[in-house]
Write a structure and sequence with these properties.
TIM Barrel, 2 domains, 12 strands, alpha/beta, 344 residues, three-stranded mixed sheet
Length: 344
């Protein structure tokens, strides 16, 4: 039986409308897109993606990302949204999602988006701590995020609230408090982005002057691990952990410092699984005296790579305590449930 698959077709409109320049932001370099697509390009992009998707049961959304979509001139907004309507009519696409700023939401804007069958609105909240927002020069307040979130939910849209970790003035405690507020505001989904130092940003200047120190990769993974577990417990879907690996990030031509890794989510899930394994086997930093034992760990197929760990990290850790370690997929298991067999 084929599994239900969710797809998002991304359309980038970098810095098309945003009048602010947050300290961390150079959207063109982060997204890898320097120009906004014309309307024919959007249609072509949607069709190309649809042709590449596997046949079977699926849910497809078109996502307008990268800029402040609701700040774009109204006629351009409508023309972008009109390009998606034929695909909604045909049933090939099931929804539209877009990202914008909380201070660019009002009832008139929401009525227009409803007319064109937008289903999900993501707000770039980044933090729900006013001191962190001021330091990042976001140009909006926590209260504005709260009001925009209320209006979006009242109008019947799914709400997404994006957050960043490691902004100037941020702490783990503040990040966890932001996560709790995202949950309390009724978000159905979120994205967690570690703050990076990108060229031609204010943060880059501060970093060179020694005024800003980004999180280490290990710190960002540790923060994100706690955040992911908190969101999962509350039923908030974490759509993305870490920035999309654009060419400028992968080749280092734009990324200067900070916790970037192309498999950031896998690093986080590796640590979540290791915590589970440590608890199961009651192991510590030293050898446990069980090096003569062989263990086999049965894991659900979607989780097995995370259980083994990025680069086999968890398996290597366990091999410090056991003679042989084997991970085996088990179709009956689901989520992070697992079973263990021990052999002498």
């Amino acid at each position: 039986m084929q599994r239900f698959k969710h797809y998002t077709i991304p359309v980038f409109t970098p810095e098309m409308a945003c009048p602010f320049q947050c300290v961390f932001c150079n959207q063109q370099k982060i997204s890898g897109h320097t120009q906004s697509p014309d309307f024919q390009e959007v249609t072509h992009t949607i069709q190309t993606y649809l042709n590449s998707f596997k046949a079977g049961e699926r849910h497809v959304e078109v996502g307008f990302f990268g800029g402040t979509f609701t700040g774009i001139p109204t006629d351009i907004q409508e023309n972008y949204l009109k390009t998606v309507q034929p695909f909604l009519d045909s049933g090939e696409v099931q929804g539209i999602r877009l990202s914008t700023r909380p201070d660019y939401i009002n009832e008139e804007v929401l009525a227009r988006l409803k007319k064109y069958r937008v289903s999900t609105i993501e707000l770039g909240a980044q933090s729900l701590d006013d001191a962190v927002l001021r330091a990042a020069r976001r140009g909006h307040t926590v209260k504005q995020v709260e009001e925009a979130a209320r209006l979006i939910r009242a109008a019947g849209f799914d709400l997404g609230l994006q957050m960043m970790i490691g902004l100037p003035g941020d702490t783990l405690e503040k990040a966890m408090a932001t996560a709790q507020k995202i949950i309390d505001l009724g978000a159905s989904n979120t994205r967690i982005y570690p703050t990076l130092v990108i060229k031609e940003t204010v943060l880059y200047k501060w970093y060179r002057q020694g005024k800003y120190k980004p999180l280490l990769l290990e710190e960002a993974v540790a923060w994100a691990k706690q955040l992911l577990l908190k969101f999962e417990k509350a039923g908030v879907r974490v759509i993305r952990l870490g920035l999309h690996p654009s060419r400028g990030l992968l080749d280092g031509s734009e990324w200067v410092a900070g916790p970037f890794h192309p498999s950031f989510r896998e690093l986080v899930l590796t640590e979540i699984w290791y915590d589970l394994l440590v608890t199961e086997f009651r192991i510590n930093n030293g050898t446990s005296g069980r090096l003569h034992q062989k263990i086999e760990i049965f894991v659900s197929p979607p989780e097995i790579n995370y259980a083994i760990g990025y680069g086999g990290k968890n398996k290597k850790r366990l091999l410090e305590h056991f003679r042989e370690v084997k991970f085996t997929p088990h179709a009956v298991l689901s989520g992070r449930n697992f079973k263990v067999k021990r052999y002498v």
